[in-house]
Amino acid sequence: MKFMKLGSRADTFYTTGDVRSVSTEVSTDIVIIVEETKYLLHKFPLLSKCLYLQRLCSESSVALKASHELVIELDDFPFGIEAFEICAKFCYGIGITLSPLNIVSIRCAAEYLQMTEDVDKGNLISKLEAFLNACILRGWKDSLLTLQSTKSYPTWSEDLEITSRCIDAIASGVLSFPAKPNLSHSYSRLGKDDMTCNGAASQRHGAGGVVASQGWWGEDIAEFGIDLYWRTIVAIKSGGNVQANLMGKALQIYVSRWLPNMSKEGIIKSEDDSESIEEITVKYRFLLESIVSLLPMEKGSVSCSFILKLLKAGNILGASVSSKMELARRVGTQLEEAKVSDLLIPTLSANGTQYDVDIIMTILEQFMVQGQSPPTSPPRAKAKLRRRSRSAENFNFEFLESRRSASASHSSKLRVAKLVDGYLQEIATDPNLPLLKVIALAESVPDFARPEHDDLYRAIDTYLKSHKDLNKTERKQLCRILDCKKLFAETCMHASQNELLPLRMVVQLLFIEQARASLAGGIVTELPNNIKVLLGTQDGDSLKPLPPVRNITIVKPMAEEWSISGPTSPNSKISTLRMKLTEVEDQMDDIVVKNTNSKLKSFQSFRSIPARPKKMLSRLLSLNRIT
Description:
Elements: E1 4-6, E2 13-16, E3 19-22, E4 30-34, E5 37-41, H1 43-47, H2 51-58, E6 64-66, E7 69-73, H3 80-92, E8 96-98, H4 103-113, H5 124-134, H6 140-149, H7 154-159, H8 162-176, H9 185-188, H10 210-214, H11 216-221, H12 226-239, H13 244-258, H14 277-294, H15 304-317, H16 321-333, H17 340-343, H18 357-370, H19 390-427, H20 435-442, H21 454-466, H22 472-479, H23 489-496, H24 503-521, H25 529-535, H26 572-584, H27 590-598, H28 600-603, H29 613-626
Parallel strand pairs: 3-5, 4-7
Antiparallel strand pairs: 1-8, 2-3, 4-5, 6-7
C-alpha cells in the first residue's frame, strides 16, 4: 500500500470534551461546527487555502458574531470529521498521511472546501491528484482499495472521475498482465502490488493450477458491489484481451460470493439483516439480471451447471422473461453437459407442477435447433483422375469438419436422451404433472437417440404408479412412446408382469420374450413375415438374439424392486393376465380373432399357439415354464 506524507509540523490538535482545538500562542477567532463537533481554529490559515470558508465568512446570513469569534456550521458536510480535520491540519502545515483508504474522502472534502490552485499555489487538491495519478492508480491493490472506498461517496466520486479512473486502472492491469498472480491480493499483502514490477509470474497454490494463475484477478474484484463490478467487467471485456473462459470463471466466483443458495421457499432472511424480504429479493434480482448481461457469448465459457443455477435462482426471484429466455438459450447450446439434478427447477405456482417443465421444454427446443446435423456425404468424385486444386482440398477439409460436427451432434443427442429419461423418472411422481407434458418431453428427442428404452420404461412405470386414476385410453396413449423391442431381457420380464400396462403391450412383450428365447436357443433362425407383422417389426429390424443379462443401475430406487429371475410364484403371471383379460374382454372383438386365426398356420412352424386369446396366453405361459 502506498503512502504520502504532507507537512512537517507536529500535531498540536487536542480535545476538551466535545471541542477540538489547536495549541498555539494566538487565541482562536473562528468556530466551525462539523457533525456536532466544535473546532476552535484561526481564520488566517483556513481562509488562505479554503475559498468556500472565505465566502461563508463574507456572508452575514450564514456567519454569526459572538464576542470576537466567528461561528460557521457546516451542516451539509458529508465526509466526516476525520476528513475535515486532515484538511484543517494541512492549512496549519501539520503533518498528515495520505493512503488509498482515505484519499477519496479527503479529495471530496478538499473539493467541497474549494482548496484549489486559484486560492493558493500548491494547494491540497493538486497534491492529492498527483498522489492519485502517480502512485495509487499504478498499483493493483491500491486501485482496488480506492475504488472500494468510492461507494461511500458515489456522487462526488463520479463527478471527480475517481471511480472511472480506478476502473480503467484495474482493467488495464488485467489486460496488461493477464497471467501474473503476483499482483493479486494474496500476493500483494507481501508488498508486491506494483503493476510495473519485474520478475516471473508465480502460480497460486492449490487446485486450479494454470487456470487459477490466469484468473488471479477474479477473486480480487469479487469484493465489489454489483454496480462497480458490472462496470469493471465491461471495461475488461472491451479490451478484448481476456479469454472467455477466464471471464466466465470470474463471474462464477462472484455469484458464489454474493448470490445465496435458494430453495422453493425463497430467500431465508438472517436475523441481523434489517432489510425486508421484498427489498432483499429486488436486490438479488438486480444482481442476477446484471450477471446474465455479462455472460460471454462463446459456448463453453461457463459450465451448463452454472447457467442452470442462475436459471433456478431467476425462477425463484422472479427475474424478467428476457433474462430467463437468454439463460434457457445458453443451456440449450450445451445441454449434454447437464445433470438431472440441475434440471429440477422449482416452480412457484401454488397449484401447478412441482418443477418447471415448460422451461425444460424450451431448453430442449433450443438444443434441437442448434443441433441440426450438417450433410454427412460429399458429392461423388468423377472417375477421371486429375490434380487436386487448393479449393478441392479446402472443400475436403470443410467436409471432414462437418463430419466431426455431425458425430458430435449425434453423441450429444444420445446423452441428452439419457438425461431426459432420467429427468422424467424424477418428475413422474408429481401428482400434478399432466400426461401430455410427459409425452411431449419423451418425444422431444429423436428415436435414434434412444438405442434402448429401459430408462423410459422406468419413467412410465413410475408415472403409472403415481397416477392410478388414468383411464385405459390415457394409459395406451402414454405407452405408445415405448418401443418394446428396445427393452432388455430383465426389463421386458418386469414389464410383462406389470399390471398397469395395457393388455396389448403385455401380449407383445410375451411374444418378444418367447421369440428371443427361441432365437437364443437356436430353435429358429429367423421369424416368419407374418410374425414380424404381429410383433410390429419392420424390414431389416427383426428381433436380435437375446442379449446377455446385465445389471441395471437405478438412479432412484423404486418402491417395488425389479426381479430378473421371473415371477416369485408360478401363478403370478397367470393371475396378472387373467385380471387383464377380464378387464378388456369386451374389447377383444372379431377383428382380433380373425387376425390371430389368419396367422396361425405359418406361426405353428415357430411355436404352436392357439387362436383364442385366453388359450394363446396360457399356452405361452406353459411354454415359458418349460423353457
